[in-house]
TrEMBL record:
UniProt name for this protein: Glycerol acyltransferase
Domain of life: Bacteria
Gene Ontology MF terms: glycerol-3-phosphate O-acyltransferase activity; glycerone-phosphate O-acyltransferase activity
TM annotation in the entry: 313-336, 348-374, 380-403
The entry's keywords: Acyltransferase, Membrane, Transferase, Transmembrane, Transmembrane helix
Limits of the Phospholipid/glycerol acyltransferase domain: 35-164
CDD domains in the record: LPLAT_AAK14816-like
Species, as recorded: Rufibacter hautae
One of the protein's GO biological processes: phospholipid biosynthetic process
Listed PANTHER family: GLYCEROL-3-PHOSPHATE O-ACYLTRANSFERASE 1
Alphabetical list of InterPro entries matching this protein: GPAT/DAPAT (IPR052744), Plipid/glycerol_acylTrfase (IPR002123)
Amino acid sequence: MLYFLLKTLFRIALRVFFRRFTVNNRHLLFSEGPLIVVSNHPNTLMDPIVTASLMKQNIYFLAKSSFFKPGIQGWLFHRLFMIPVYRREDVGDGGTAQNDATFSKCYEFLGKGGTLMVFPEGNSFMQRRLRPLKTGTARIGLGAESQHGFNLGLRIIPVGVNYSDPSRFRSDVFVNVGEPIHVKDFQAAYADDPFKASHALTDEIKERLEALVIHTETDEEDALARQVEAVYQDKLVKELDLAPSEPEERFLITKGILQSIKYFEARQPERIHSLRSELQDYLQHLESVGLVPDAFKRIPNRREVAWGTVQTILYLFFGFPFYLFGVVHNYLPYLLPAKIARMLTKDIEFYAPIMMTIGMFTFPIFYALIGWAVHAWLGLSGWALVAYLVALPVTGFFVLHYWHRIQIARSNWIFFSLFSKRSTVLHSLLEQRTRLMTALEQARQEFLASFPENTAETKSA
């Protein structure tokens, strides 16, 4: 009952926390057990919440034993279908016997057609990177199948969870579900050598997961990829005639950017070094005048800036009462989750799940208290009270939109200022951007030409 209640609440909370929640191949999660769902692990407790919310059946989770502290936390984790795993780095060699019991419980659960969720990286770091996988998932899968003569029909479903900004409210998440791995396919390998079979299955899981996530080898590579995305991705989206909000296509574009970075890093490292320096100079130049790369998606002319400024002033003027109403009624429940999250932990990976979980309670509690107060003190009741309560979350979202409009107005005003007062700065930025776009486009064409099939298609066209 507790699991069902929290799952329902989290489904609602996820749609509020994330601006855009997109799932690719969701139908693959609707399979009946026995299943093992494996996922990357960049965002601690948010990752199981995101994936489990998409599945109808109850799911058991493998979680590190340090979460199962005595008292209410341990009781809660057990009630939420979590099974402790005793990692060597947590408990030393003494955890082997305890893990044998954990594995036996998993075998029994999977044998009854259950669904198990595992994060084979074993720990969580907020990076766009798949870290080395532990073999536990493969050993559980092969062990469960072995107990049933490899007739269990166990499948491993890989899931890649990709966040645009893991710790930020109203960011995006793209859940990329892959085709299942049939554990029975490793029966012969297991009969020859169980140890080698578990490593072979782990390698297969790793390969599948890497295809489903944005995987960067180093922080420097990730930083460069993000810079290229910021400057060049929108041009590719427009050139390929994609909708601006197609996360799957943007995901593939980012994968292509990373592939091309690796290509030139191996063949022309000096070119990558030069590109990195130019991108940093350009982005720092933008920041120094208060602009972001998105500001150059479409450069407005003076008339558009002037008319847009008039529209924004009218919007901000007439919308201010609603903005003020929304801020007054939503500021505290919005602020508290972030404050509490930072008080509870210094690990940024825990901020988002803590904020979302606390927000699930702060907003309803505050809304209930406000409703009681206006009923008791102002005599509001009936449909008037209902309308008042409905206005609370609506104006809360309006506050976010209002603030976004202010940022757009600020960007347009900077453009207006550059046009009228410091045109040399704007021209310098445009020249920098033109050089960068030319260099990126040339690199793209060279990268595409390196594939024989692309060259053949170009010639035939």
